TrEMBL record:
MF terms (GO), sorted A to Z: methylmalonate-semialdehyde dehydrogenase (acylating, NAD) activity
CDD domains attached to this UniProt entry: ALDH_F6_MMSDH (cd07085)
Name by which UniProt lists this protein: methylmalonate-semialdehyde dehydrogenase (CoA acylating)
EC number annotated for this UniProt entry: 1.2.1.27
Keyword Lipid metabolism: no
Keyword Oxidoreductase assigned: yes
Length: 503
């Protein structure tokens, strides 16, 4: 751990107070374009973790009884504050994560959409009622909050994914403990400051930092009722197994290997633009990135055009104007991506565009990898099997749509897929037959808006319910069903009924 005492420290949020940690274990937050240390983040102590849980537990009774309109108005205020501070938030995000300023604003905006949706909680959390299900008997449901919930978020979307989690959980009447990524927690903390400014009461939102020990504490603590996770498959599987074994609800969004199928009738220039943007945007560090393209039939002739399109993209620090691709999050991430590129060559793939050893003027120490494209990729190769999380695109060929669908369905992951075509019949066949949770038709990254839920599937997800949208209301609430009968005192009591009938 790098403990640089003269750098500003990232605070904990416990019981409404931003506190200096007493930890002896710290990690540096590093600008990935310059290697400059921006801050130091603590690995919270067991006592600090316990204090966060106790704060959330103490705040729950009052918050769960807070009027639904009061909760909604807090999130109306919160979305206004996010909009007013968008430029500051984007600059902070770019400094610590590396993505371009435009992409940073997109990161924040997609989270902001969920905050706006949380302000609609009055419509989202309503139960159901059936009148006279039997003589004089009504049945209705209440969707009540669970209690203390927790979220564990990744480095690649330090604004959007925290905003997927705590606004919806809190709007439903729960209290929340957030553990941001220790690699880039600064923009997350600024969002939490704005949330407190919007009126979230003390103890309702708490933040702790750390690594494996804090993750395990979240999974194990008996007070915490539900855990939401976004990150790697390895950690997500661990979280799901450990949390559910402890009796908690868990939803884990994990690794991916998304595919795009391109038919020859697709609009060529729009398709090439979409493929390049989805494959190389955010330096490929998206769970919904596009690392595999399957060119079908005559579309196989587009390989050269795709390479030329990729060559037009600018690699630079995210804060620089006209940058298309910023640095990877860390030196370790860069090394891993380069090793995977090496493996592609060793296993016989054809390297059409090599992004290794890219040089960026003014940023000699940045974690840069340029657009990289392989053809002649086979499905047993590491570059196809593993999630690269870098700007590397694998091109496969298929004779027809059925063959392309078979390739996708044989892959373990089911986060997202897309088809590019002008044929409605082909698109309908694709959406019906492909076994993937989120499908784009001429849309390369089919992440749904918050009116719907994120519905990755198979090896990309553990848990039945996705984040945000209608599904997350079910995740963060307990359905209570009430069956009631009110007797008229003037009616005869009748005889004893020993059956289960309500007649």
């Amino acid at each position: 751990m790098n403990s640089v005492a003269n750098n500003p420290s990232v605070k904990l949020l416990i019981n409404g107070q931003f506190l200096e940690s007493q930890s002896q274990q710290w990690r540096s937050v590093i600008n990935p374009a310059t290697q400059k240390v921006l801050a130091r983040v603590p690995f919270a102590t067991p006592a600090e973790m316990q204090a966060a849980v106790a704060s959330a537990q103490a705040a729950f009774p009052a918050w769960s009884k807070t009027a639904i309109g009061t909760r909604a108005r807090i999130f109306l205020k919160y979305q206004q504050l996010i909009r007013e501070n968008m430029s500051e938030l984007a600059a902070l995000l770019t400094a610590e994560q590396g993505k371009t300023l435009a992409d940073a604003e997109g990161d924040i905006f997609r989270g902001l959409e969920v905050v706006e949706h949380a302000a609609s909680i009055g419509n989202l959390q309503m139960g159901e009622m059936a009148n006279n299900v039997a003589a004089g008997v009504d049945t209705y449901t209440l969707n009540q909050p669970l209690g203390v919930c927790a979220g564990i978020t990744p480095f690649n979307f330090p604004a959007m994914i925290p905003l997927w989690m705590f606004p919806m959980a809190i709007a439903c009447g729960n209290t929340f403990i957030l553990k941001p990524s220790e690699q880039d927690p600064m923009v997350t903390m600024r969002l939490c400051e704005l949330a407190m400014q919007a009126g979230i009461p003390a103890g309702v939102l708490n933040v702790v930092h750390g690594g494996e020990e804090i993750v395990n504490a979240i999974c194990d603590h008996p007070v915490i009722k539900a855990v939401s996770f976004v990150g790697s498959t390895k950690v997500g599987t661990h979280v799901y197994q450990r949390a559910t074994l402890a009796g908690k609800r868990a939803q884990c969004m994990m690794g991916a290997k998304n595919h795009a199928v391109v038919l020859a009738d697709a609009n060529k220039q729009q398709t090439l633009n979409n493929l390049a943007g989805a494959a190389f945007g955010a330096a490929g560090q998206r769970c919904m990135a596009l690392p595999v393209v399957i060119l079908v039939g005559e579309a196989q002739a587009w390989v050269g055009d795709l390479v030329e399109k990729a060559k037009t993209l600018s690699v630079n620090a995210g804060a620089e104007a006209d940058t298309d691709i910023g640095p990877l999050i860390s030196c370790t991430a860069k090394l891993r991506v380069e090793q995977l590129i090496d493996s592609g060559l060793q296993q016989g793939a054809t390297l059409l565009l090599d992004g290794r050893d890219v040089r960026v003027a003014g940023y000699p120490e940045g974690n840069f990898v340029g657009p990289t494209i392989f053809s002649n990729v086979r499905t047993e190769m590491r570059i196809y099997q593993e999630e690269i999380f870098g700007p590397v695109l694998c091109i496969l060929h298929a004779a027809n749509l059925a063959e392309a669908i078979a390739i996708i369905n044989a892959n373990a992951h089911g986060n997202g897929t897309a088809i590019f075509t002008q044929s409605g019949a082909a698109a309908r066949t694709f959406q019906e037959q492909v076994d993937v949770g989120q499908i784009g038709i001429n849309v390369p990254i089919p992440v749904p808006v918050p009116l719907f839920s994120f519905t990755g599937s198979r090896a990309s997800k553990l848990g039945d319910l996705g984040p945000y949208g209608k599904q997350v209301i079910q995740f963060y609430t307990q359905t209570k069903t009430i069956t009631s009968r009110w007797f008229d005192d003037e009616l005869a009591a009748g005889k004893v009924n020993t059956t289960i009938s309500l007649k």
